[in-house]
């Protein structure tokens, strides 16, 4: 059985400033031609919350499982990887270019703390499925008071 790499940590390093990310997003929304550059892209994702778990589904068709990486802490998850560029057809030019390639990264802040020891991930048919168990907290706890 092959495994998807999962790293645990407390910090997620951001390579670009917020200003640079906004400029990239502005140009990508204007024309798909700008998406042919080496800039990062964002795969589409769904997040579901059940009473005991959080489920994340990411659409990452065309990426190999070995090129995916997950980093997780109790508050957030970082999903990153690379989708390789398809080889161009010889003697042809683009008429439509919508499929994004290259490095991608998403940092998702979770609605509730999760148990980092109970995380599973699978990749099938272009979808990454991540299952995160919520941390269970006792609602009430009695604290004995001792003589001082």
What distinguishing features does this structure have?
148 residues, 4-stranded mixed sheet, 4-stranded antiparallel sheet, 9% helix, elongated
Task: Set down the secondary structure blueprint.
Blueprint: E1 5-8, H1 18-30, E2 45-49, E3 53-59, E4 68-72, E5 76-83, E6 102-109, E7 114-124, E8 127-134
Parallel strand pairs: 1-4
Antiparallel strand pairs: 2-3, 3-8, 4-5, 5-6, 7-8
How far apart, in Å, are the first and last alpha carbons?
A: 57 Å
Which percent bin holds the helix content?
under 10%
* Average pLDDT rating: 81
* Number of discrete domains: 1
Question: What do you see in this structure?
Answer:
The protein is mostly beta strands and 148 residues long. It has a single domain (5-84, 96-134), classed as Immunoglobulin-like. It contains 1 helix and 8 strands; from the N terminus they run E-H-E-E-E-E-E-E-E. The chain has one helix at residues 18-30, and strands at 5-8, 45-49, 53-59, 68-72, 76-83, 102-109, 114-124, 127-134. The termini are far apart.
Write a brief structural summary.
This protein has 1 helix and 8 strands, in the order βαβββββββ. It is mainly β. It has a single domain (5-84, 96-134), classed as Immunoglobulin-like, CATH 2.60.40.
């Amino acid at each position: 059985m092959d495994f998807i790499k999962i790293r645990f940590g407390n910090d997620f390093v951001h390579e670009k400033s917020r200003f640079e990310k906004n400029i990239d997003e502005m140009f990508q929304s204007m024309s798909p031609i700008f998406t042919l550059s080496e800039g990062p892209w964002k795969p589409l994702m769904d997040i579901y919350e059940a009473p005991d778990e959080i489920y994340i589904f990411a659409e990452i068709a065309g990426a190999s499982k070995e090129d995916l990486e997950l980093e997780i802490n109790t508050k957030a998850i970082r999903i990153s990887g690379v989708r390789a560029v398809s080889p161009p057809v010889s003697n042809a030019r683009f008429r439509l270019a919508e499929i994004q390639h290259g490095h991608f990264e998403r940092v998702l802040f979770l609605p509730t703390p999760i148990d980092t020891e109970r995380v599973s991930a699978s990749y099938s048919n272009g979808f990454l499925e991540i299952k995160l168990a919520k941390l269970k907290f006792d609602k009430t706890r009695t604290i004995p008071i001792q003589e001082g």
